[in-house]
Amino acid sequence: MKTDDGLLDAAQCLRLMAGTAVGRVVYTRDALPAVLPVRFRLLDGCVLVDAGDAHQDLLRAVDGAVVAFETGELNVLDGSGWSVTVLGLARAARRPRTMPGPDREFIRIRSQVITGRRLDAGLPVRPGE
Fold this sequence. Notes:
The protein is mostly beta strands. The protein has two helices and eight strands, in the order E-H-E-E-E-H-E-E-E-E. The chain has a single domain (7-119), classed as Roll (Pnp Oxidase, Chain A), CATH 2.30.110. It has a six-stranded antiparallel β-barrel. The chain is globular, with a radius of gyration of 16 Å.
């Protein structure tokens, strides 16, 4: 449900997230904030990130830590769109049985806090400016 200030409730956030496949994991690396774009899917209210070979450092850095995950969509022409942020505990996990494919490692982020916001169209954006 959209409120007057653009805030989205948790159910709406999850519906929007289900329609996207790429997001960003925000975590701490060497005591500094780090952001990594990743492919993901939702499973039982959790964010499931593929921790394939390219993300082994991420897997080690976030296992057992509280992380943020963000995804959204933005219309670059008018600035409209939405953004959803999930905060939760990240854990290493094996591929769920319900997912087809080879046995791989994943990062499961249990959604503890879900916030979202719709962005209304703003000033027109002209490419190249």
